[in-house]
Structure formats: C-alpha cells, structure tokens
Amino acid sequence: MTAADPSIATLARIVAAFNANDTQTLRTLVSEDFDYVLEGKSPIAGRYRGHQGMQDFMRAIHGAAGGTLKVEPLGVSADDRFVIMYATLTAERNGRRLEGQNVYIYEFDAGKLRTGRNVPCDAYAWDEFWSG
Question: Do β-strands 112-120 and 30-38 pair in parallel, antiparallel, or remain unpaired?
Fold first, then answer.
C-alpha cells in the first residue's frame, strides 16, 4: 500500500458524490480552502473557492445539465500528493448530448481534496455544449 491509496479511495467517494449531486458529502471530502478551476470560456468556467465555491460549482454544472451529468473514470494515477484522473463525462442539455473525455488534476492534503483542475480534451465541444 502506498500513501497515494487513501487519496484514490477518497477520489472514488468524491466522484460518487459528484454524480449524485451530493454537496453534503462533498463538503466533508474537500478542504475549507478548496480551489477548483474549470477550464474554458463557457458560462460555468472559472475558479471556485472554499466550500461555498464548491456548492456554487455543483449548482452551476448540475443545474445546466438538468440531472443528467455523470463522470465515469477510465484511469487513475497517483503519487503522494497528486491524483490524475482520465474520465468520460456525459450530460444532456437543450436537446444535445455531450460525451467527452476530460483530464482531472487533483491535489490532496490531510486526506481532503484541496485543489482541482478540469481540462476538457475537446475544449471547443466542451465550451459549445455549456454555452448553448
């Protein structure tokens, strides 16, 4: 067992809570100084900080997707500090469907998610979907 294993287990709980739009559970898994960046130029892109930022992010992305949002991990790699996840994200919005891959870069500290960054593999399709 390595020091990265607890972070991978925590990430699995985070993904499950994210998919369920469970902000109460997420609040227990992210640090108070949480700092998350959603890349792009869409209305939901930007930086989200703290527990309030996490709730704002969840409300924005899940609200825009009307309960259809799902992240499915395809691969996870970790060291003692960072976890990188490659995943498929699916969502439906305004009669359109998004199915694309994203790279997620996470930093854990004291067992909680401290920083994160979502990098869509197809930035144009990502921005178009969330903007339309």
Answer: parallel
Residues 14, 127: Cα–Cα separation, whole Å:
24
pLDDT digits (tens, 9 = 90+) for 63-102: 999 999 999 999 999 988 899 999 999 999 999 999 999 9
For the residues of 44-98, what is the DSSP string, one character each? T-EEEEHHHHHHHHHHHHHHHHTT--EEEEEEEEE-SSEEEEEEEEEEEETTEEE
70-78: strand order across its sheet: 46-49, 30-38, 112-120, 96-109, 82-93, 70-78
Which two structure tokens, joined as six digits, stand for 88? 């498929």
**Residue that has been written with the tokens 């709730």 in this structure:** 55
115 vs 25, 64, 105, 128, CA distance in Å? 17, 23, 8, 25
Whether pTM > 0.85 for this model: the answer is yes
